[in-house]
Amino acid sequence: MGKESGTRHYAGWFMPPADSPVDTDLYLQRIDHTGPLAHDVDGLEALQRAHMTAVAFENLDVYHRRPVATDLTHSLNKVVNAGRGGWCFELNGAFSALLEALGFDVALLGAAVLLDGPNQVIDHLAIEVRLDQPYLVDVGFGDSCIRPLALNDRSIQDGGSGDFQLLDSPQGVTLAVIDGEGFPVPQYRFRRVNLKLPDFDAASKRLQSDRSLHWSQKPFATRLLDSGPDRVTLLTERLKLRRGAVTEEVPVSPDEWNATLAEWFDMTNPEPES
Question: Which domain holds residue 100?
């Protein structure tokens, strides 16, 4: 997960705007993206996989009761400068800004997470990217799809980490993962309405303040290994390494936790808020 120095070259297809809040060279170094920048779905997938490999989906600030925000000043500083990860509002917020700085046509989507059953409240941020057709992109939903999904396609799609399907309903479009028996399991539902980052402030504050939610109960961090689909996940008492069809679990004691976090995620566990 090391960084490379030097200035990126954009192969003539796009130059980042001078007023962009994103230092594209620094951000691309942060996610170790050293290949050509292609303005198509393959290029988008390469950026998504690079981001999900280098930047962890993690809850450490929320767990330690350190306040987090949805604005780009916070998210870009945390992800790019501090070398941290975060949750959906931070990761998809920062990644959408990078994509926009690279010339992609981006929209922010508000979603209701369905993992615990029916839900009508927006509590997740996802991304729509419009290329030859619109695509759903998400770097902030943990162990989920790791490549863009065509938003106009209702057939089963290869999400890189499994099969996924987009299903229509009166409430919006539902992202579902196909289980081992071929049934769609809902992940979250969204409407294709372009929102702004301040629209997610209420959800971010609510999820931080509710100490009964899993965000606040136990620390975790997860990321792809080598662009996926292999994955490493650090939980409270164990490290999970998934390589192909094999998942290895290694016990981690409290005394080993910070060192394990540093070894696998190149991060320092933040101090609890006083």
Answer: 24-265
Between CA 75 and CA 6 the distance in angstroms is 23
* Contacts by residues 147-151 (CB-CB < 8 Å, ≥ 24 positions apart): 147/45, 147/48, 147/49, 148/41, 148/44, 148/45, 148/48, 149/175, 151/192
- For position 147, what pLDDT does the model report? 98
* Angle, helices 41-54/88-101, rounded to nearest 10 degrees: 140
Phi, psi of 231 (to 5 degrees): -150, 145
The token duo for 22 is 């994103």
Structural domain count, the chain: 1
Residue 16 lies in a domain: no
* 5 has pLDDT over 50: no
- The CATH number for 139's domain is 3.30.2140.20
Has residue 8 been placed in a domain? no
Asked whether residue 49 is assigned to any structural domain, the reply reads yes
Q: What are phi and psi of 195, to 5 degrees?
A: -105, 175
Q: Decide if 4 is inside a domain.
A: no
- pLDDT tens digits along 35-66: 889 999 999 999 999 999 999 999 999 999 99
Provide the pLDDT confidence category of residue 9 given band limits of 50, 70 and 90.
very low
Give percent of the chain with pLDDT exceeding 70: 93
